[in-house]
From TrEMBL:
Coiled coil: none annotated. InterPro entries: Sig_transdc_resp-reg_C-effctor, TrmB-like, Tscrpt_reg_LuxR_C, WH-like_DNA-bd_sf. GO terms for biological process: regulation of DNA-templated transcription. It holds the Pfam family HTH_23. This is HTH luxR-type domain-containing protein.
Length: 314
């Protein structure tokens, strides 16, 4: 039965469902229910007895009673996840030098690689950091687990390679992530990489393949520290990406255009990528870029980005 996961036996669930449909009811009305099943529901806070002879029973609303059980189970699972992470960290710290090979695993096959990435996400307690870059093995379709992580308060920071902005569907997908709470930046991505705070990292074994057929899973080690430092260094150099309402309508004022255009210009996006990102035409992009160059007294886009940063516009 579905509700066994939150502590109801199949018999108690069946009884509760009958009570939901015909409260209040006596024990005789609920035959073949037993006093033990009623006691189980009462202990879980799902029924309330009414005075009388014989006593009658009323189901507590599912929105109140079952939600309370779900929240309690979620808290238990969160505590268990934290304990597993603590034990994992202790395990890796206690690995002797002769077992150091276990700190780096090689997983082979798409399913194994996907499983390692899923394990990394599920094991995150506070944050996940990702280098995202093409080529992609499958069409952009979204990472449902990331939305779950963001929903339970895990910080997700994603650094997208400039080339990713050219891939159809990327911008609309990033907009969904940002709306859910992701922190995103655009810059130069040296290698695909994902890190959590278990600590654990997953990265392709080969970076020149269109399909990731094998990957390295790195556990608590000096190598993992180096990968984390690499991410932070690239993150600091990248440009924050902001998307409002998915695709933005054409800005009606110069200040709006400057605010929307500058981060993308500084990130090195092409006119086509900027147009797709902002919902502008190519001609509108060129017009606003030209206006910015004049306003900033710059001859090149690089100079414009430098001047904008110096003036605190970024």
């Amino acid at each position: 039965m579905v509700l066994e996961i939150i502590g109801l036996s199949p018999e108690a669930q069946a009884l509760y469902e009958r009570l939901v449909e015909r409260s209040p009811a006596t024990l005789a009305d609920l035959t073949p229910a037993t006093p033990g099943e009623l006691a189980e529901l009462a202990e879980l806070g799902l029924v309330t007895p009414l005075p009388g002879d014989p006593p009658r029973y009323v189901a507590v609303s599912p929105g109140r009673g079952l939600d309370a059980l779900i929240r309690a189970r979620s808290q238990e699972l969160t505590a268990a996840r934290h304990r597993v992470a603590q034990l994992s960290a202790r395990f890796h710290r206690s690995v002797p030098d002769e077992d150091a090979a276990g700190l780096v695993e090689v997983v082979v096959g798409r399913e194994a690689v996907s499983g390692a990435f899923l394990r990394l996400q599920r094991g995150a307690r506070r944050q996940v950091r990702v280098f995202d870059a093409p080529p992609y093995a499958t069409p952009m379709g979204g990472n449902a687990v990331e939305f779950e992580l963001l929903g339970r308060g895990v910080e997700v920071r994603a650094l997208y390679d400039r080339r990713a902005m050219e891939v159809p569907g990327t911008l609309s997908l990033i907009a969904r992530y940002l709306a859910a709470g992701e922190h995103a930046r655009v810059g130069d991505v040296p290698v695909k990489l994902a890190l959590n705070d278990e600590p654990m990292a997953v990265m392709p074994l080969r970076h020149d393949r269109h399909v990731v057929e094998s990957a390295l899973v790195v556990h608590d080690s000096t190598l993992l520290d180096a990968l984390a430092a690499l991410f932070e260094m690239c993150w600091e150099r990248a440009v924050p990406l902001q998307v409002r309402q998915g695709r933005l309508a054409e800005a009606t004022e110069a200040a709006d255009a400057r605010r929307d255009l500058l981060p993308l210009l500084a990130a090195g996006l092409t006119d086509a990528a900027i147009a797709a990102h902002l919902g502008w035409s190519d001609r509108t992009v060129r017009r606003h870029v030209h206006a910015l160059l004049i306003q900033l007294d710059a001859r090149t886009r690089f100079q414009a980005g430098y001047q904008a940063a110096a003036r605190g516009w970024l």
